[in-house]
Design a protein that fits this description.
This protein is α/β, with parallel strands linked by helices and about 190 residues long. It contains 8 helices and 7 strands, in the order βαβαβαβαβαβααβα. A 7-stranded parallel sheet has the order 4-3-2-1-5-6-7, sandwiched between helices.
Length: about 190
């Protein structure tokens, strides 16, 4: 597929270092990576070769994209750092990892994952609310994985703990290509 978007766009992908129970999660990670690579974008992520992280990185590289990974030294062996990336940066702490990923990204997307994925998404969202950045972020809701979280976010609005405007900042989609197009368009407006 020809490159149709600028090659200087970097998308940070948050996702599991595990595969998850449903094959659809791996399929979604593959689709995201293929989209990033085929559009000449750069994927920014946590630098691991295992789980959905490795699948998305491999798919990006196979489709012609570049991948920038960041992994703390203490996780390098545990998560089996990806040796085939365009660039793998080893840092000292998780804070350094997240800061560098943030700095290198124009937008963020969370795929299925565990508490680390949640923490990364909510930190980026909180930083936006606090005025630290204006980069868009989204949630790929594969096979309804995030339905309970979305319901909780909506309840937070109805119970008065989250404003509708801040709730609306999280772009949610079930189709990888459609959500990534929305994130790119939103980043183009904000940058």
């Amino acid at each position: 597929m020809p490159q149709t978007q600028p090659s200087d766009f970097s998308l940070c992908v948050y996702c599991g270092s595990r595969m998850g129970a449903q094959p659809a999660f791996a399929a979604a990670a593959t689709q995201v990576g293929q989209w990033i690579g085929s559009h000449g974008w750069q994927m920014v992520y946590g630098g691991g070769k295992v789980g959905l992280m490795g699948i998305a990185a491999d798919a990006t590289l196979a489709a012609g994209g570049t991948v920038f990974g960041v992994i703390p030294q203490n996780l390098l062996d545990k998560e089996v750092g990806h040796p085939g990336l365009t660039e793998l940066r080893v840092v000292g702490t998780m804070h350094e990892r997240k800061t560098l990923m943030f700095e290198r990204a124009d937008a963020f997307v969370a795929l299925a994952g565990g508490i680390g994925t949640f923490e990364e998404l909510f930190e980026i969202w909180t930083w936006y609310q606090l005025g630290v950045h204006s980069k868009p972020f989204g949630l790929l809701n594969t096979n309804g994985y995030y339905d309970p979280l979305i319901a909780m976010l909506d309840r937070m609005v109805s119970e008065g703990f989250l404003s509708p405007a801040v709730r609306a900042l999280l772009l949610v989609g079930t189709d990888a290509a459609e959500l990534l197009q929305r994130l790119h368009a939103a980043a183009s407006v904000k940058i």
